[in-house]
UniProtKB/TrEMBL annotation:
Entry-linked InterPro entries: AAA+_ATPase (IPR003593), ABC_transp_permease (IPR001851), ABC_transporter-like_ATP-bd (IPR003439), BCA_ABC_TP_C (IPR032823), LivM-like (IPR043428), P-loop_NTPase (IPR027417)
Membrane topology, as annotated: Multi-pass membrane protein
Keywords: ATP-binding, Cell membrane, Membrane, Nucleotide-binding, Transmembrane, Transmembrane helix
Record's GO cellular component terms: plasma membrane
Protein name (Swiss-Prot/TrEMBL): Branched-chain amino acid transport system permease protein
Localization of this protein: Cell membrane
Residue ranges occupied by any ABC transporter domain in the UniProt entry: 349-582
TM region(s), chain numbering: 7-28, 34-53, 65-84, 90-109, 116-134, 163-181, 212-232, 252-274, 286-305
Origin species: Thermodesulforhabdus norvegica
Broad class of the protein's primary localization: membrane
Length: 602
């Protein structure tokens, strides 16, 4: 087994930046350089916010100059027009940015891809119009002069050189905080959402809440950069906060490496400095700017920092004297052999008159069925019968046209997927929905975060318990791209179990597996019942289904046509007509023994 090794470059690089910020003012004599470095810091803070947003949601905002502008204009208006003390003006600006970004987050985060980009772009255009038109408040196109400079007692902030220290401290503060957040459990959940939102939601994570948090936080970065900018320049005008500014930030993020904090700072540095360096070329300046930009993007399409990182990794792999194979795998000793988190008893899962339509197609028609806790159920039916739709409706992924779903006494109809997961229903997917950037361990971590603070330290041992239950401990540090389909199915089961469900809806666990692996799946399903979790299984493999399930429900064209024990189902002529073809076909399937001594922890 090979474990990918990454050289840690973040914190060392940030520490180098901190030291350079400390000593540069003593060495550089040219004051104009500090003007540029201060602008680098403002851009760097805003781009760090954009990278945080991308890391958490996978989405790009072309409107973050809105918050830059709101921060700058609010502090200007409050301190100059209303004569408020600076601290009060800053608080007002921060509040303005928080409230406006929170309000904007709701409609924009509902959109995906290009639509979100267009919506944020639209917001930026609207702000520019308001800043230009509301002359009595903003000064209109002529700008807003006379914003007070910052002063902090004995620290000189009125000069470019003096302000540099504050701007650099702010930039590094945001950078350190962002890297720490990205490396924390919250950062892991952010990345899980970016990689597979629906799977994360089905683990019980309120993905909308996390995305709003990321959006508001990233807006705050731009807002604070705006406040600093206003007090540094003493003059602001709408031109600074236009769409071009937002575009420039996104370009900086792309050039440095999307989602990468160091990349954002490097991108801000390069693209702020470049126009100054090309100044002498006069008319040819834009042409050369474009050539440099294109060259960087062609040579390192992932961005500059990821490109540097892979070079460093390659170099350190060459100089590595020790092989880093199995040795680096964490093989923790487990505390005792206590079973994993005991399943919850939430009562029966009751579905009453459930109908689901996709346009004119009725995928489910008045389906009523009750699943009892403690035994394995199966839902079978030919292709297109509505099995996955039934699972999706129970999990809240599709909204039913009519009908009700109860978990015990709690009606969960219309709940969002994460609320349903929190209520006690987990699931796996027909095609495993995993996180390509994550290790096996990280998947279980995401499931574990349900109802807990995502803190690495608090969750570590419990993750091991679940990994051990599914015999995944040995694979725990591997990425999902390095494991087999059978492993992927186990990872999904482990992630679902980690969320402490009462029921797990298991969609086609046997699909694509060989006989031996299917038998192992059967053993895991039995093991789940022993820790108080009730699996409801959809599968086309009759050998697997008929041998694990105590009760089988048959769907055909969106309706239940039979419900009984495996033997009753095999004998049912309607089922034979609709699906099985012949009784022999069922009986020919290989059998696994009921019960499973020694499987999982049970
Ligand atoms: N999102 C969707 N939009 C439109 N039609 C859909 C959607 N999802 C499912 N359907 C349709 O609903 C019907 C039931 O589909 P479903 O996937 O639930 O069947 P299934 O029993 O799980 O089939 P299979 O065994 O092939 O997975 C099918 O006709 C399918 O084409």
């Amino acid at each position: 087994m090979r474990v990918e090794k990454k050289t840690a470059i973040y914190f060392p690089a940030l520490i180098c930046l901190s030291l350079s910020g400390l000593f540069l003012p003593s060495f550089i004599k040219n004051d104009y350089l500090f003007v540029i470095l201060n602008v680098v810091a403002f851009n760097g803070i805003a781009v760090t916010g954009l990278n945080l947003l991308y890391d958490a949601t996978g989405q790009v905002s072309l409107g973050h100059a809105v918050f830059y502008g709101l921060g700058a204009y609010t502090t200007a208006v409050l301190s100059v027009t209303f004569g408020l003390p600076l601290w009060t003006a800053w608080m007002g600006s921060v509040a303005m940015v928080l409230v406006s970004s929170f309000i904007l987050a709701f409609p924009t985060l509902r959109l995906h891809g290009h639509y979100m980009v267009m919506a944020t772009l639209g917001c930026n255009i609207i702000l520019t119009v308001i800043l230009n038109q509301w002359e009595s408040l903003t000064g209109g196109p002529s700008g807003f002069p006379g914003i007070p400079e910052l002063s902090a007692g004995f620290v000189e902030l009125s000069t470019d050189r003096g302000f540099f220290r504050l701007a650099w401290i702010a930039l590094l503060g945001f950078a350190f905080a962002t890297v720490a957040l990205q490396k924390s459990g919250v950062g892991k959940i952010f990345r899980a959402i970016r990689q597979n939102e629906i799977a994360t939601e089905c683990c019980g994570t309120n993905t909308t809440g996390y995305k709003i948090f990321a959006f508001v936080l990233s807006a705050l970065y731009a807002g604070i950069a705006g406040i600093l900018y206003a007090h540094y320049m003493s003059f602001i005008s709408p031109k600074t906060f236009g769409v071009f500014r937002s575009l420039e930030w996104v370009t900086m993020a792309v050039v440095g490496g999307m989602g990468n904090v160091l990349g954002g700072i490097l991108g801000a540095f390069v693209l702020t400095l470049l126009p100054e360096l090309l100044h002498a070329l006069e008319e040819l300046q834009v042409l050369f700017y474009g050539i440099v930009l294109m060259s960087v993007l062609i040579l390192c399409p992932q961005g500059m920092v990821p490109a540097i990182r892979s070079l460093v990794d390659r170099f350190s792999a060459l100089t590595e004297t020790e092989a880093c194979g199995d040795k680096s795998l964490k093989k923790k000793t487990l505390r005792g052999a206590t079973p994993v988190r005991a399943g919850r008893n939430c009562g029966k899962l009751r579905i009453e008159g459930l109908s689901v339509n996709f346009g004119g197609l009725q995928a489910l028609s008045s389906v009523s069925v009750t699943f009892d806790p403690g035994r394995i159920h199966a839902v079978i039916g030919p292709n297109g019968a509505g099995k996955t739709t039934l699972f999706n409706a129970v999990c809240g992924i599709v909204k039913p046209r009519s009908g009700k779903i109860f978990l015990g006494d709690l009606e969960i109809t219309g709940f969002s997927p994460h609320k349903i997961a929190l209520s006690g229903i987990g699931r796996t997917f027909q095609v495993p929905q995993l996180y390509s950037e994550f290790s096996v361990r990280d998947h279980v971590f995401v499931g574990m975060c349900v109802g807990r603070l995502p803190l690495n330290g608090m969750i570590g041992d419990d993750v091991d318990e679940v990994l051990r239950f599914f015999d995944l401990l040995e694979l725990s540090e591997l990425k999902v791209g390095e494991v087999s389909l059978f492993d992927k199915k186990r990872i999904e089961l482990a992630r679902a179990l980690a969320a402490n469900p009462a029921y797990i809806l298991v969609d086609e666990p046997g699909g694509g597996l060989n006989e031996e692996e299917k038998e192992a799946v059967a053993r895991y399903l039995f093991a789940l019942t022993k820790v108080g979790v009730t699996p409801i299984v959809v599968d086309h493999h009759m050998d697997l289904v008929m041998n694990v399930a105590e009760r089988v429900v048959v769907l055909h064209q969106g309706q239940i046509i039979a419900d009984g024990t495996p033997d009753e189902i095999v004998e049912n002529p309607r089922v034979a007509d609709a699906y099985l073809g012949s009784r022999q076909k069922v009986l020919s399937g290989g059998r696994v023994e009921r019960g499973c001594e020694g499987c999982g922890n049970a």
